[in-house]
Amino acid sequence: MSGWNPWHGCLKISPGCQHCYVYRIDASFDRDPTIVSKTADFNLPLKKTRNGEYKLPVGETVFTCFSSDFFLDEADEWRIEAWKMIRQRSDLNFFIITKRIHRFTINLPEDWGNGYENVTICSTCENQNRANYRLPIFLNLPIKHKAIICEPLLERIDLSPWLDSSIEEVVVGGESGPDARICNFDWVLDIRRQCVEKRIPFHFRQTGAKFVKDGRLYNIPRKEQHSQAVKAGIDFQP
To answer: Which of 91, 141, 168, 204 has its CA 20 to 30 A from that of 116?
Structure first.
């Protein structure tokens, strides 16, 4: 797995953004996270080593634009070139998470058709309000590989109206960081139940820093948040 951040910086648009890790990291460097700019790795998919091999090797999964949002307004013109690189590197699998699924079609490539085979688009929904808004849009878009990300999970969410065969996976996780909001295990299990009923793969990625289980609040160190989710043993593959 590799990362590709063609641009950096973002603007908060919903409750899930409240304690954004990009803002937290930028604050530690006294950097303004609202300034959006291209990075030195803008053309990383096309960069090669001295022996002529791609720096991103064939078959790699590339986590894309994790220090911004791929569909950010400020990046509209840059995204045209980014799509060209994604199309050129059809031997890579690009994994894109967005809170701006409503902007997906802006500057979409002319040859997109029903989607590129090497692109997975993930729409986030941290609460019921955002699920109700984003997921109807998401389901009607021409995308070959779709996933739903409920992270940070801020409340109980009913995803069942949108769990159809086009959804390849649902990922759930709590919020990290010093100001993290509570994630309740009951909410996680409820989404799992919905996925099991619809035969949709489910992955519990992390507990978050403040995790409630059986009415008890656990303060979980960052290094243990993923491992504790694994120990729960609730992932589902139909």
So the answer is: 204
